[in-house]
Amino acid sequence: MHLLEKLAREKVLRDPIHGFIHIQDQLILDLINTSEFQRLRRVQQLGVTASVFHGAVHDRFGHSVGAYELARRITESFNQYYASQTPGDGLWQPAERMLTMVAALLHDIGHGAFSHTFEHLFHTDHEAMTQAIITGDTEINHILAAYRPDFPNEVAAVIAKSYENPQVVQLISSQLDVDRMDYLLRDAYYTGAAYGEFDIDRILRTMKPCATGIAFDIGGMHAVEDYIVSRYQMYLQVYFHPVSRGMEVLLEHLLVRVKELIAENPDTEVELAGPLLAPVFRPDHDLTIAEYLRLDDHLFYTAINGWQDYPDPILADLSQRFLNRKPLKSIPINELSTPFLAELTDTVAEAGFDPRYYTAQNEAYDLPYDDYQPAAKKPRTQIDIVLADGSHRELSALSTLVAAIKGQASLDQRFFFPKDMLKDGPDELFKALHERFRTLIQNDPFIPGKNN
Length: 452
Ligand code: ZN
What we know:
With 452 residues, this protein is of the alpha+beta class.
């Protein structure tokens, strides 16, 4: 069967994070060449974050082949140095290599345009869509099934974390997996935020299979520690950024407005959304895989561009604000601001802005690291360090830095409102509010530059 073949000569893709992505198997090449995988070139990795970090226009294609390349390198070393000798010795099964590489390559295949906003609004789920694309009637499914009839189910099981071998599952999803390692380095590079960097080569060299999954030699402990701190920093400084969340609120509200306009008058569906976007807004309609796969960033930007002069003034205004980067302003929700939020909402309405579309409460949450907590809703797989005598210790037992952030959630709740209301408001109320919010904004720890 041709799919089992190694390529006569490996192919390489130039990549700014890993140097080269090495493609050595016909199967990997065939999967990359499917229409479903090529679609990932048209879906930006960080969505509206690019409106704050203008370099961050990288796409899910690059991240997916990057995660594959890490899986390729790790399993190459596992095959060479840690191949199982006798059943049950806790070492690596070389036959799992292809499954691991394919799961890494396809782990985000179900991601769509503006995933976060889209899923929230249209009740889709990229993880469920990933499963559906792998096991449904798609080019990817046909290629996987031709390799081995049960292969699509195995790949789907790895991504769903239900596959029996914990080594394979943890390489694809755990607190230190090929997905996180690639997106942190890639997002750090493209945003220009240097604190996302860490010593990937050291981590890969000290990574090893064990009976419970994956562990790291003590020599890699500081590199692993640095990775945890980098991840913590990237969440606070990049992923939580209040300005991109202000853009996300605009996007969400303008899509809500389109949904409402179409619900009021279904005949406007195609005029408003065009044939490819229309199914998204159809009431009580579950998108088919084929419909979902046609959606990309360009389709949304083109539609929003057109909505700028649609006769509905709210839709037109929100679309203009979104395209011209006029995000809603925000203040942290805390003991200082909470007593004023109702008053602020009233003021927004008095200034002529419908609070349903021009205010929002939004929460950003992350748990940077935790050890295994059996009682947790989703228990984490802890990071284990292997000492010289072969015994295991959980990372925070050895690292005071990690111990300090273990189990500590980062949470940032914000109230969003139109900034121009403060500037243009003529009367005393606006001025008083402005003064009050200036103090709140100046004491805001999550805004790196105060003039955003
Ligand atoms: Zn990913």
